[in-house]
Amino acid sequence: MKYAFYPGCVAQGACPELYVATLEICSILGIELDTEVMKGASCTGSGILQEKNERLGDTLNARTFAMAENSGMPMMTICSTCQGVMSQANSRLNEDSDYLKQVNEDISPEGLTYSGTADPRHLLWILLEDIGIDKIKSLVKVPLDGMKIAPFYGCYIVRPSKVLGFDDHPDRQQALEELISAVGAEVVDFPGKTLCCGFPITTINETASMKMVARHTTDAQQLGADAMVTPCPLCHLNLDGFQPKAAQMNAVEINMPILHLPQMIGLALGVDPKILRINKHIMSTKKLLSKVTLTP
Amino acid sequence: MSEHDVLIIGAGLAGMRAALSAKENGVDVAIVSKVHPVRSHSNAAQGGINAALTDRGDDWKDHAFDTIKGSDYLGDQDAIEVMCREAGDEIIQMEHMGVIFNRDESGNLGTRAFGGQRQARTFFVADFTGQALLHVLFEQIIKSDVRVYEEWFALSLIIEEGKCCGAVLMDIASGVIEVVKAKSVILATGGLGRVFEPSTNALICTGDGIAMAYKAGAALMDMEMVQYHPTTLAGSGVLISEGARGEGAHLLNSEGERFMERYAPNMMELASRDVVSRSEQQEIDAGRGVNGTVFLDCRHLGEQIIKERLTQIAEIARDFANVDIYSEPIPIRPGMHYQMGGVKTDVNGLTTVPGLYAAGEAACVSVHGGNRLGANSLLDTLVFGRRSGEHASDFSKNISHTEISGKYAELETNRIQNFLSNDVSAGLFGSMRQDMGSIMNKHLAVYRDKKGMEEALKQIKSLKEDYFKIGVHDKSKTFNTNLLFTLELGGMIDCAEAICISALEREESRGAHTRTDFPDRDDENWLKHILVKQTSEGPITEEAPVKITNWEPQIRSY
Amino acid sequence: MPLPITLNVKRFNPDSDQDSYIQEYQLDVAESDTVLDSLIHIREEIDGTLTFRCSCRSAICGSCAMRIDGKAGLACNTKISDLVSGDKKSITVEPAGNMPVIKDLVVEFEVFWKKIRQVSPWLKHFAMPPKGEHIVPNENMLHLAGVMNCIMCGACVSDCTSLEVNSEFIGPAALAKSYRFLADPRDEANENRLIELSQPGGIWDCTRCMQCVEVCPKEVDPMGRIMSSKEMAIEMGITANTGARHANVFASSVHHSGWLDELKLPVLTHGIFNFKEMFKLAFLGLRAFKVGKVPPVIHKKRPNVTKIRQIFEKVGHK
C-alpha cells in the first residue's frame, strides 16, 4: 500500500531527525511513501492559525484533503498535532454539508473539490492497523530488553475522542504502549501520558509550560523510565529542547531522553542510531543507548 | 448576631427574584441556601414559561381562564388575575436581563403550545428554560452583590410576639449554628417531592420551608393537591418535559393507540396534567400498558425539531432510559412532580404569620388550585417572588428589629446533639425515608380512597415517633450531610402528615385529588380551600373560601 | 443480573484524618446503575459518613462532578456498566481536581466561582432597553444555547492542564461563560471584555489540550469558545500581547510560504527589540546548533504558494 506522505512543518524544520527516521523504518516495514504528491500542501495551521481564523484553517485543510483524494492514496501524518488538527477540520467539513459546499467554493479556483473521503492517519495508527503488531515483532532485530520507556501521546492525538476514530478503533488509545511492548521494552505507565506538554503556551507563558515539562519528565523519571517516546515533534521540542530550561526554572534535576516514535521502532529494527539521528537531540541519549547491545 | 432587613430562605427562581426586587427597593437583603443557588431545582424545569403578550393579540384574561379551568376552579381568581396580568412584563424583564429565549422568524420572542392552554403562549429556551432563567438570575445576583449564605441550612424560624423575626441557621461546612435577625423572612424553599418515592424532584426538595412554617404556626393550604406528571421515567422518576407534547409528541398504549382520544378528544395530549395522568393510569390498570408504563412517541417530529427544541429530552432518554428518541418511543408513566399546596399566602406573599412571607412552590396563593398547568410554575415563581420581595422590603422599612434571646440557638444545638448521640445501630435515615416515600406513593397517588389514606396517616404517625431515635453515623462538624439529611427528614414527615390529613378531609374529587370513594366534583360542599395548622393539641383543619371574581365554576372537560 | 463491583473511594475527613486514603466498598449493583446510585446507596444504607454533593440525579444541577477512573464527569450520568468489563471490576472515585478538598468528595468550589465573577458574567447593555423585547435572530439564541447549556459542574476546571500549573488562568468554565456574552448581540461590552480577556491569565493562557472538551457532560466545548474568543479579539485589533502576535505571525508565515518558518516565528512574536527574549532565543538556538538541530536558514516556499495566498485573500477576513 502506498501512502501520500504529509510530514508537517516541524519534521522539515526543527526536527529533521523525525523525517529521516520515518523514511528509514517505512522502507524496512514495507510502508511505501510518496514524498512528492503532498509537497504543495500547506501547513495544517497547528491550532494556531485556527486561533486567528478557523474557517481559513478548514479551507487550507480541505485543500490538502482534496489533493490527497486526487492522489488516490491514503494520507500519512507523523505529527500528533497535524493529525488532530486535520481530524477536527475533517469532522467539521463532514458534519455540515452546507459548510463543505462553502469551503469547496473557495478551493475550486485551483480546480480542487473535497468530497469528504480523506482519512489522514498517523504513522502510529498505521503501524497498529495496517502493519500490525505481529509483523513488527517479527522484524525486530534488536529487542529493547532492559529499556524502560514511558509513552507520551500529545493532546491532539487523544482528544477530542469523537473525531479520532476511537469508536471504530479503540486500540488507538493504547497504541504507544503496544508498540513499546512489541519492540521488547518495558512500558512505564504514568498518569501524565495523555496530558499536555505545554508547547502551545511556551511563548506565551513560559513558566506554566516549563512546569508541565518538569512535571511529566520527573514523574516518568521517578517511575524508573529510561526514556520517553512521543509521536509528536512539538511535544518533542518542548520535552527535549526545553528540558534544561524546565529543570532550571523548577529547581529539579532532569535527565530524560525523548525519542521520536520512528526512532524507537528503528532502533529495534536494527537501524544504526546515527542514521536515526538519535544523537541530534538536546538531551543526550548516550546512556540510553548503552542499555542495549545495538549490533544485531 | 447578624441582622438583615429581609432574609430569604431558598435561592431558586422565587428566592433570587425576591432578592433582586428587595435589593432594588433599597433594603439590606440576604439569601440562605443549603446548596449553591445554581444547584436549585428550578434548574430542572424544562418546557417553558407562560405569558399573554398583548402586543401579540393575546389577552391575559384568556390565560387567566385557562389557568382557572386548569385549577379545577380551586384557584383564587384574584391571585390568578394578578399573575396573568403581570406575566407579560415579567417575561420582558427576563429578556432584558439576558435570557436567551427562542425567537420566531422576525426575531421576536417565540412560543410553543403547552398543556391546558388554548393558545400558544409558552415562551421557552430549547428545553431547559428553568436552567436558562435560573442562571441569568444568578448572574444578576452577582451583579447586584447580594449576600448569599451559601450552603447554610435553615433549622427553624424565630417567632417572637407573634411575629417572625429571624431564623436559626447552620453552616453546613463547619457545623456552626447562628441566629440571624431579620425584619421579615421569605420562604422560597421549593417543593416537597422527596416525600414521595419515586419523584421527579431533586434530592434537595424536602419541603424544608413548608415544614418550618407549619412548626411556626403558619397555615398550610391545599396540601392534598399533589401533581403527578404524566411523563416520567419508570424507576428513577426522572422527568420528560411536557415540551415534547407541546412540539407534537403522541402518547401511545401497548396497542399503539393514541388513547387520549377517549379521554380528552379536543386537547388530546395537551389536556391538563391531572387528566392525562389519570388517563394513563387507567390504560395501565386496564392492561394496555407494558411493565407499568405507556409510551411517549417523538419519532414523527423529525430531526430538526428535536435538535433545536428537545435536545435535553434526547439526552435524558439516552442517558437514563437507553432510548434513542429518533427511532424508539420512550416508556413513561405518571410520577409525583409538584405540590400545588403549600404555605398559605395572600397576593403579596404574606403568610398567616406577620413578618413571614412565602413564594414559589413552597407557597399556595393559590394560583394553581387543584392542578397546575405546565409552564405556569416558572411564572408563579417570578411574579410572586418579585411581589413578596417588594412587600417584605416595604414592611421592613417601617419596623425595627425584635430582640431575640439566646435560647433559640441553644434549642437547636440540643436537638442536634440528641441526634448525634443516638445509638448508631438504630439504622440510618435512608430506610425511613424510603418507607415514607413508598407509603405516600401507594396511598396518595393518582387514585385515592379513605382506607388507603387512613393507613398512610397511621404509618406516618408511627414513623414520627421512631424518627427521634434515628442513628447518625457521622459525628463530625465538617460538612455533615448525614446529620443534614436526618434533620430534613423530620420536616418531610410533618409535610407527609399534613398531606394525609388534608386529603382525608376533602370528600370529593377535584383536580389532582381523585378519590374512588368520592369520584365526583362537589362544588356545593367543597368549593373551598382546606387549611392545616399545627397547634399544641396537634394538627387541626380549617377552611378558607375560594376567591371568585369573573368566572363561575363550570364542568371541566378537554 | 446483579453486577459485583468494588468502588474505591478517596476519603478525607479534616476532623479526624491527617491524610486522604482509599476506602473500598464491595457492592452488588444493577446493570443500569450509575456511579451516583452506588454512592447514594452507600451513604443511605452502609456508611452514613460518606460525603458528596448531589441533587437532581439527571445531569442538570451540576452538583455531582468528580473524578471517576481519573477522568472528571458527573456521577449521575456515568453508568457503571460502561466502566467495568472483563477483568476490570473496580472503579476509582476521587474528588474533582484543581480545587482544595473539604471532605471526601466535596471540594471548595469558591475557587471556581471566583473565576466566574472575574469575567463580569452578566449582560451589559448600556442603551435604554426597548419597550418590548430586543429583536434578535433565532440563530443567535440557538448558538448561545450551546454555551448556556453549561451547568457549572466544574468538570472542565477539574481536569484543565493549564490550571494545574497556573492558578492565575481564568479557566475553561469562566471563559466559556464570557464567550456567552461576547456572542450575544444584546451585549455591548465586547471590546472591554476582550481587552480584559487578553490579559495574562486570560484566553491566551489556554494550552489547547482539549481536556475540557473531552470531559464536559453537556457538550459546551469550552476550548472551542476560547478559540472563538481569540478570533474575535484579533479581529478587533486587540493584538498587543504575545498570544495574538504569535497567531498573527504564524498566519503571515503560512501566507508567505505555505508553511511555518520556525526561525522567524519566535523572533517576530516577541519583537526583535525585545532584547531579553532575543537573548534567551539565541541561547536556545546555540544549544540546538551544537547538536545539529536547526531549521533550514533558507526557508523555501511551497510550490503553488500563490494558490495558498489566494485562499488567504478570499477567506482571510471571514
Word description of this protein:
The complex is a heterotrimer of chains A (296), B (558) and C (318). Helix content of chain A is 45%, strand content 9%. By secondary structure, chain A is of the alpha/beta class. The two termini of chain A are 28 Å apart. The mean pLDDT of chain A is 95. With 558 residues, chain B is α/β, with parallel strands linked by helices. Helices cover 37% and strands 19% of the residues of chain B. In chain B, strands 1, 2, 6, 7, 8, 9 and 16 form a seven-stranded mixed β-sheet that branches. In chain B, strand 1, helix 1 and strand 2 form a beta-alpha-beta unit. The model of chain B has no long low-confidence stretch (mean pLDDT 95). Chain C has helices spanning 35-46, 110-118, 138-148, 155-159, 161-165, 172-182, 190-197, 211-215, 222-235, 242-257, 264-270, 275-290, 305-315, and strands at 3-11, 21-29, 65-68, 71-74, 90-94, 101-103, 106-107. In chain C, the strands form two sheets. Chain C has a five-stranded mixed β-sheet. A two-stranded antiparallel sheet of chain C has the order 6-7. In chain C, helix 2 packs parallel to helix 6 (172-182) and helix 10 (242-257) runs antiparallel to helix 11 (264-270). The model of chain C has no long low-confidence stretch (mean pLDDT 94). At the B-C interface, helix 3, helix 4, helix 10 and helix 13 of B face helix 1, helix 2 and helix 3 of C.
